[in-house]
Amino acid sequence: MFSLVFANEKGELFDYPGLVQAGRLGDQWVEPLEEELIPLPEGATLTMIPGRFPVGINPASGRFEVMSANPYSKGELAWAVGALLPQGYTRTLLPGFARTREARPLPLLGYTAVGFKAGRFYVAALPTDEDNRWNPRHYNTEDLEARVDSMLAAFPGNRILKQLAKCSLEYGCFTAQNIFYGRWEGGIPSSPACNAQCLGCISLQPSECCPSPQNRIEFVPSAEEIVEIGLAHLQDDEAIISFGQGCEGEPALQAKLLAEAVRRIRAKTAAGTININTNAGFKSGIIQLVEAGLDAMRVSIISPTPEIYNSYYRPRNYSIDDVRYSLKFAADKGVYTSLNLLAFPGVTDREEEVEAVIGLAEDTGVKLIQIRNLNIDPDCFLEAIPGPKGEVLGLPAFLEILASELPGVRIGNYSKPAPRKRR
Question: What is the pTM of this model?
Fold first, then answer.
């Protein structure tokens, strides 16, 4: 039996064998299947979920029960616990909890159901990709600060590097750190503006909503600043520079600037991959970048269904049809295109969503679907989107169907260098 895990008001963790672990698919409490529970992965962390009482299953009656009080300490409340997964794992269930009336919106994290058995924590998740380059052991090393100082000294007037230094040392951003390590995928933020008002934006939120974990870039860099970093980073074919980071808005809105930078970089080197992480709604900007020599494009999407897409992204002056156009245009021009699919148990795995994702992939020619656990307060998200029309299949079934119906599309979690044939 996998027992319920809870936290006391100090944040100390306990298991309670009196109740079996429960999880959530959307707003429905469910009992996890044993095959979807795996030992807590390396790099995962556990977090208290304040203002939410844990929910478990009474082993005698089989009924779900809300546990509001700490069974080990009279007069103390019990709070739910969730796991935060590293990349390479796809969450299959949300934590089982019931929100209190006074609960405030939760920080933007990917809360995952967690239980306890035989001295170990278990999470409701599937390993869905493997790439050692994103292992936390490669980051936040002892020499990072010296590397940052050295590169800032080499390019003293580069404002992007100053931003990336903050992202590296204060926020621990891996793509920012890779710029200073001189390897793999490195981020180059450029756009303070955005054409969407995402419900789960990680760099800009209204004060009454969930707090953003980082600040957005406040300036538009010069082409020279971008080119300096791009040429320094693109030293081999495993290197990637990516426009569109968590600390900026929509990079395609700076298409004229980025297109100039891409052309200047490609005039000096053919090495590596130039990628954009985008919502792809600004069609004319995507066209400019593709024609300038963009190698790869990763499009963030939560659903191809307009009602859900609009509820989450709250787009300004574009629609999901514009996103479709951009994806197809880029793929037809030889750009390596992928979807950055924000997955949420009970929504992504709805029957109608499976069909919509397959249709989008087939219509636009994407080569990769990256599954990303959506970081958001589950209740805030569910209250903002329309309810299901068909059956909820579960994330394991969703992934199986994608693999079966899209044999030419890779399903995973990580970006890869674009094939060399384009250059």
Answer: 0.92
